[in-house]
Amino acid sequence: MGITEDNVVRVLVTGATGLLGNNVVRMLLEHGQQVRVMVRDSRANRSLAKLDIEIVQGDVKDEESVKTAMLGADAVIHSAAMVHIGWTKEKLMQPTNVEGTRIVGEAALKQKIRMVHVSSVDALGIGQEDAPANEETPREGKIPCPYVLTKRAAEEELQKLIANGLHAVIVNPGLMFGPWDWKPSSGRMLISVVKKQPPLAPRGGGTTCDVRDVALGCINAIGHGRVGENYILGGENISYFDLWTRIANMTGRRPPWRRMGPFISMMVGMFGDTWATMEGKEGEVNSAALRIAGQFHYYSSDKAKAELGYNNRPLDQTLEDAWHWFRKHGYLPL
After folding, report:
1. For 250-298, how does the pLDDT look when each residue is reduced to its tens digit (9 = 90+)?
2. Reduced 3-state DSSP string for the chain
């Protein structure tokens, strides 16, 4: 089932208020598709305002609401997930990331519709600065925080259903930037560089991509992805120091002085963990996040380019578009 303007289908999107899900919804509409979204709160959400979509109330953790939302759909793009890089919140992530994926997959199997599951490069093996990983790289080397473990467990649950006949494809996006980042998610990095102008950048790096390109990759996976296969949707592999410097130069801010050394990284992470214990709430600065940021999450998207027609626009364009979007919507000063 290829998606074209002459082949109108109804696609159910979970996680439609998030960065990727919101871009998927908008791109489906641009391609003339009928779109249904499942949200926990059926009241109007500004991320979905004025969009010609069908909104149904439900939660991916609830089997009955998922079944209802999927009635009459031709495909489902499952992008709902809980994201937190740290040592805590596993009890919150497990029901959404793992059980929610299983529930969506079971419903898609019973109703015989196609499914695209949005995972993450964090579920894959680790890349290296001089050797990007791919879908076949052994799943070793990642810091075993709950987000990594639950995203991997979700894929394992899905593979069991695929073995029983589910038509599902798994996509693994990298670090996404772009418009419609309402919450915001990965855009917090850009906002932090602009507002705080941190003097030190993490030691590692990542595969950075435009959320609009990833959204199109997800849509293309419905008709062109091979059942049971993973597809990395990455982009430019760049160190965080170089990325932060590029953001700072683009926005007229002060770039970081240098990379964070191992000792400083360890001390900052320990401070974050101690603060979390005192406050009873883990923030974005913690030892898991710092250890992950010290790795090079470099990946190759060659498979997605060959099979899904996946392409990347220049990173500078992506960052500039994201910056302008955040300014237009009041996240950053004009």
Report:
1. 999 999 999 999 988 989 889 898 988 888 889 999 999 999 999 999 9
2. CCCECCECCEEEEECCCCHHHHHHHHHHHHCCCEEEEEECCCCCCCCCCCCCCEEEECCCCCHHHHHHHHCCCCEEEECCCCCCCCCCCHHHHHHHHHHHHHHHHHHHHHCCCEEEEECCHHHCCCCECCECECCCCCCCCCCCCHHHHHHHHHHHHHHHHHHCCCCEEEEEECEEECCCCCCCCCHHHHHHHHHHCCCEECCCEEEEEEHHHHHHHHHHHHHHCCCCCEEEECCEEEEHHHHHHHHHHHHCCCCCCEECCHHHHHHHHHHHHHHHHHHCCCCCCCHHHHHHHCCEECECCHHHHHHHCCCCCCHHHHHHHHHHHHHHCCCCCC
Architecture of domain 10-244+291-328: 3-Layer(aba) Sandwich (3.40)
Pick the more confident residue, 162 or 41: 162
- pTM equals 0.95
**Residue 3 confidence (pLDDT) above 70:** no
**Average of per-residue pLDDT across 18-23:** 97
Domain borders along the chain are 10-244+291-328
